[in-house]
Specification:
The complex is a heterodimer. Chain A has helices spanning about 45-65, 70-85, 85-95, 105-120, 125-130, 130-145, 165-175, 190-195, 235-255, 280-285, 300-305, 310-325, 360-365, 365-380, 395-415, 435, 440-445, 455-460, 480-495, 510-515, 530-540, 540-555, 560-565; strands spanning about 5-10, 10-15, 20-25, 155-160, 180, 200-205, 220, 225-230, 270-275, 295, 330, 385-390, 425-430, 450, 500, 520-525. By secondary structure, chain A is of the alpha/beta class. Chain A folds into four domains: about 5-25 and about 150-235, Glucose Oxidase, domain 1 (3-Layer(bba) Sandwich); about 40-145, Orthogonal Bundle (Enzyme I, Chain A, domain 2); about 255-270 and about 430-520 and about 530-569, Phosphoenolpyruvate-binding domains (TIM Barrel), CATH 3.20.20.60; about 270-425, TIM Barrel. In chain A, the strands form two sheets. In chain A, strands 1-8-7-3-4-5-6-2 form an eight-stranded mixed sheet. In chain A, strands 15-14-13-12-11-10-9-16 form an eight-stranded parallel sheet. In chain A, β5, α8 and β6 (about 200-205) form a beta-alpha-beta unit. In chain A, α3 (about 85-95) packs across α4 (about 105-120), α4 (about 105-120) runs antiparallel to α6 and α20 crosses α22. Chain A starts with 6 loop residues before the first strand and ends with a helix. The model of chain A has no long low-confidence stretch (mean pLDDT about 90). By secondary structure, chain B is α+β, with helices and mostly antiparallel strands. Chain B has one domain: Histidine-containing Protein, Chain: A. Chain B has three helices and four strands, in the order βαββαβα. Chain B has helices at about 15-25, 45-50, 70-80; strands at about 1-5, 30-35, 40-45, 60-65. A four-stranded antiparallel sheet of chain B has the order 1-4-2-3. The longest helix of chain B has 13 residues, at about 70-80. The termini of chain B are far apart. The relative contact order of chain B is 0.31. The mean pLDDT of chain B is about 90. The chains are: A alpha/beta, B alpha+beta. Chains A and B meet through α2, α3 and α4 of A and α1 and α2 of B.
């Protein structure tokens, strides 16, 4: 037997939790249907076949719906309504009756017309509905052709698919699958929404290779980090098994803690906020106990093509503020560039060291002015609630230019008698080592700091975090990174400037405890991490966390720091 | 024929769920029902038509009813918009 090697892949985490199971490959059914014609005497037969296929599928969906409620039932409802759609039915029948096409082609081409509209719509959720229609189309054609495709998924399967239709997802969930890995699928696709509400770990945008995967092979899926490992080694597989159990226990435990005050066991308060990028995440802010938004990423507005004129931005920001129930919202200026290129820029040799964040904004005055205006206008509607965060600051002159631009917008709006919050706090991201090293000087000129630990790690260690060859060198627990965090805090304290951490580090309970121990008591993280972090912090005293911080800060190697964190229970 | 201008008030806009509530309710009436927005006119009983409007929160549209129970249909459907498509 040939030993097949371990493969590690990364995608976008879409539904939390850890899944361990055996690979199952869900093949695409899609095939082309050619425009074959029929004779007039065949019309009735084809109309009949079409109607029967619609009824058959409708009954199947109704049966599925029977034992479901809430979100799942609602999604099924939409599928059923699609089958009942009068315009769709009319068009298919017209193609059979008047254009004399075979029923499968009439179905195929009518659905494709709608699919085409949805694919090209300027709306991400509508693009994400495409898969729903493709699935219904293919199922109808299968029924017309009298072809059955049963998938024999066994319990504990990890499903590998290009994309999954909502009804398939529901069927799969009944087999107690362990996880889902998709090549496509947006964060607002029904498959993702369903995997979240059905509690199935899911990772999307994974480029998995069909040739390198066999049915039944052991697979591990981490819906929190987006990692997928095929054929993990024995040690790894034991580790993930333990972690899965541990995580399940922690999550159940932590849900109880959401309504309790955010205080350490000795009564010292801390502040947990949410990192937000998509509107879909808003309901989870309060549900997971966040006090406001510590990092609102705004790049999505740029990329979702909703336009980034002032009004479109204001609309997006308002929704976020409203979902935060009176708590603060920190808006980070567009952090485009680097791995997230904006349309008109050329590919750069070193994008992470290139034209991104504030560097891009200062060159694109139009973008910057629009965003500043939107944020100031918003601040007038919600005074005292809005903060502005500047990404990628590496030297003082950038900050000065930004403040000048902000000043100009402020004056312009005040002259036009627009209500604004003239005290709107302006803070900077600490993610470039130069900013951490000069924290004291920066602190004199800003209202707050927010540390982005992922970029700080990448820039401190000169490790491109997207480069798989050196991924083992990406060590957030490197003593140099911890030292820069400490320097930032010390520099900020000289001028009484508050420090928050909004990077991945804050979302790990032990690292979070260490940060609190260093005196950084404001942490912002992805909403799914909030309960576990809160539970862990509430369970320890400040003394314990300070001791942890002291020992981690004097560690000599990343390994030693990690060991110290692991030992802290 | 009766007409009325309404605004989409629910935060998510006319997505799959609100669309299916809308067409389900509309289908109970005999009157024809059309929605007109940005110069597009779709059959209000067609979920695919309604969804492809991609109406976001705040979008304005005109509801057009024509038929024996048009008055009542208008009343019930505009209430749906008002109640943000929450089933009563």
């Amino acid at each position: 037997m040939v030993m097949r090697s371990r493969i590690e892949l990364t995608g976008i985490p879409a539904s939390r939790g850890i899944g361990l199971g055996n690979a199952y490959i869900l093949e695409d059914n899609t095939e082309d249907v050619s425009p074959e014609k029929i004779q007039t005497n065949e019309v009735e037969g084809h109309l009949d076949r079409f109607r029967r296929s619609i009824n058959y599928l409708r009954e199947k969906f109704e049966r599925l719906k029977k034992s479901e409620s809430g979100e799942v039932a609602e999604i099924l409802d939409a599928q059923i309504e699609t089958l009942k759609d009068p315009e769709l039915n009319k068009s298919i029948q017209h193609k059979i009756k008047n254009e004399l096409y075979r029923s499968e082609y009439a179905i195929y081409s009518t659905f494709n017309e709608y699919i085409h509209v949805m694919e090209n719509a300027d709306s991400e959720w509508l693009n994400d509905r495409t898969i729903d229609l493709i699935a219904i189309r293919d199922q109808l054609i299968d029924i017309v052709r009298n072809r059955r495709r049963e998938t024999e998924v066994t319990e504990n399967s990890v499903i590998f698919a290009s994309n999954i239709s909502p009804t398939k997802m529901i069927e799969l969930s009944r087999q107690n699958i362990a996880g889902v890995v998709m090549e496509k699928g947006g964060l607002t696709s029904h498959a993702v929404i369903l995997s979240q509400s059905l509690d199935i770990p899911c990772v999307i945008n994974v480029k998995w290779n069909r040739k390198k995967l066999l049915k039944g092979e052991e697979v591990f899926v981490d819906g929190d980090t987006g990692k997928v490992i095929i054929r993990p080694d024995e040690r790894e597989s034991r580790y993930y098994r333990d972690r899965k159990e541990e995580q399940e226990r922690l999550y159940q435990e932590s849900l109880k803690i959401i309504d309790q005050p955010s205080e350490t066991r000795c009564g010292s308060p801390f502040h947990l906020q949410a990192n937000v990028e998509f509107l879909e995440e808003l309901p989870r802010i309060e549900k997971h106990g966040a006090h406001g938004v510590g990092l609102l990423r705004t790049e999505t507005i740029l990329f979702q093509k909703t336009g980034f004129d002032v009004e479109a931005q204001l609309k997006f920001y308002r929704e976020v503020v409203q979902a935060s129930g009176g708590s603060e919202v920190t808006i980070r200026l567009f952090d485009a560039g680097g791995d997230k290129l904006i349309g008109d820029s050329d590919l750069e040799a070193n994008p992470f060291l290139g034209w991104r964040g504030i560097r891009m904004l200062l060159d694109r005055q139009d973008l910057l002015d629009n965003q500043l205006e939107a944020i100031y206008r918003l601040s007038g509607e919600f005074p005292g609630q809005i903060k502005m965060l500047v990404p990628m600051i590496s030297c003082m002159s950038e900050l000065n230019k930004l403040k000048k631009a902000a000043e100009n917008i402020r004056t312009k709006l005040e002259k036009g008698s627009v209500n604004i919050d003239s005290e709107l706090p302006i803070g900077i991201m600490i993610e470039v080592p130069s900013a951490a090293l000069l924290a004291e000087q920066f602190a004199e000129n800003v209202d707050f700091f927010s540390i982005g630990t992922n970029d700080l790690t990448q820039y401190t260690l000169a490790v491109d975090r997207g480069n798989e060859r050196i991924s083992d060198l990406f060590q957030p627990n490197h003593p140099a990174v911890w030292k820069l965090i400490q320097m930032t805090k010390v520099g900020a304290d000289k001028h009484g400037v508050p420090v928050a951490v909004c990077g991945e580090m804050a979302s790990k309970p032990k690292e979070a405890a260490c940060l609190i121990g260093m005196g950084i008591n404001s942490l912002s993280m992805t909403t799914s991490a909030l309960p576990a972090v809160k539970a862990f912090l509430c369970d320890h005293t400040l003394d314990e966390m300070q001791l942890l911080a002291d020992s981690v800060l004097s560690a000599n190697s990343p390994l030693e720091a990690e060991k110290l964190l692991n030992q802290f229970v | 024929m009766v007409k009325k201008k309404v605004t989409v008030k629910n935060e998510a806009g006319l997505h799959a769920r609100p669309s299916s509530v809308l067409v389900k309710t509309a289908s109970k009436f005999d009157s024809d029902f059309y929605i007109s927005m940005y110069g597009y006119k779709v059959n209000g009983k067609s979920i695919l038509g309604v969804m492809t409007l991609a109406a976001e929160s705040g979008a304005e549209m005109e509801l057009i009813f024509d038929g024996p129970d048009e008055e009542e249909a208008l009343k019930i459907i505009s209430e749906l918009f008002e109640n943000k498509f929450q089933p009563n």
